[in-house]
Every structure is written in structure tokens, then in C-alpha cells.
């Protein structure tokens, strides 16, 4: 299990396949990156979170930040999710869980007394220099995208 990643730390290096092609994190694009981990495509909380980030995409662009959502769903699932919900940025697949492990978001969860492993909804703002600007754990969706934008 990885250690907790927080502001001031270097972002873990991972390579992912997204609906827009392959990406490396941290990015070498000269832009910052908002990386949000979510549990599952087409579920209510995840849909609302993705739509909230889509609604603010232009504002993130103006501040020099790209957005990527990550779950363990397949690229095919992501493509359907993007089309159905009109998501305005790429989604990355982490089917092997390597990015979840690297960022420390693969956690034991408990729902209705049943314990299972899953993604802890988390967001990381990564500067163009590859350093973590801020991290959010156990995210509550309502108002979260606005909160992330406000710290940039």
C-alpha cells in the first residue's frame, strides 16, 4: 500500500490509456492536471461529479489545467459514459489498478455491513512542474469541482 500523497509531494509516475489516447502522469504538456478518481461509470455520484467538472472545463482551461477522470472501468465503458452523459474531457482506464495503488486510493470500503475493495473518491491537482498542489480524499460530490477550481 502506498503512503498518503499530499500537497508538496511529487505526483507518482503512471502511464494510462484514455479515451483520448495514451497519457503520462505527471504530464509533459506544460499544463497542470486535475486528476479525479471515481468508483464507477454511469452511477449517480460519479455522473454528477463528471458533469460538474465538464461544466467548469473552460474555467480550468483558462487556469492552464487539463482534466482526466480515472476509474477501473474499461475504455469501452468510458466511451459509452462520455457519449451518454456528454462528458467534456478524457477518461482513463486503470483496469490493473496500478494508478489507484500509486495514488493510494484503492481502499477497503464498507457498505451495508459488507466490506469490499474499491476506489475512494479522490482528486489531485498537479502543477505543470509535476508537484501535487492539493489533494482531496473521501470527496463529497456537491460543490467539489468548484472547490478544486477555487484553489488554483
TrEMBL record:
Any GO BP? cell redox homeostasis
Name the GO cellular-component terms. cytoplasm
What GO terms are given for molecular function? Answer: thioredoxin peroxidase activity
Q: Name one Pfam family in it.
A: AhpC-TSA
Enzyme Commission code(s) on record = 1.11.1.24
Recite the UniProt keywords alphabetically.
Antioxidant, Disulfide bond, Oxidoreductase, Peroxidase, Redox-active center
State the active site: 46 (cysteine sulfenic acid (-soh) intermediate)
Task: Reply yes or no: does the keyword Oxidoreductase apply.
Answer: yes
Q: Which residues form the Thioredoxin domain?
A: 5-152
Q: Which reaction does it catalyse?
A: a hydroperoxide + [thioredoxin]-dithiol = an alcohol + [thioredoxin]-disulfide + H2O
Instruction: Read off the InterPro entries from this record.
Output: AhpC/TSA, Peroxiredoxin_AhpC-typ, Peroxiredoxin_BCP/PrxQ, Thioredoxin-like_sf, Thioredoxin_domain
Purpose: Thiol-specific peroxidase that catalyzes the reduction of hydrogen peroxide and organic hydroperoxides to water and alcohols, respectively. Plays a role in cell protection against oxidative stress by detoxifying peroxides and as sensor of hydrogen peroxide-mediated signaling events.
PANTHER family recorded for this chain?
A: AHPC_TSA FAMILY PROTEIN, THIOREDOXIN-DEPENDENT PEROXIDE REDUCTASE
Homology family: Belongs to the peroxiredoxin family. BCP/PrxQ subfamily.
Q: How does it assemble?
A: Monomer.
Q: What is this protein called?
A: thioredoxin-dependent peroxiredoxin
User: What organism is the protein native to?
Assistant: Henriciella algicola
The opening ranks of the lineage are: Bacteria, Pseudomonadati, Pseudomonadota, Alphaproteobacteria, Hyphomonadales
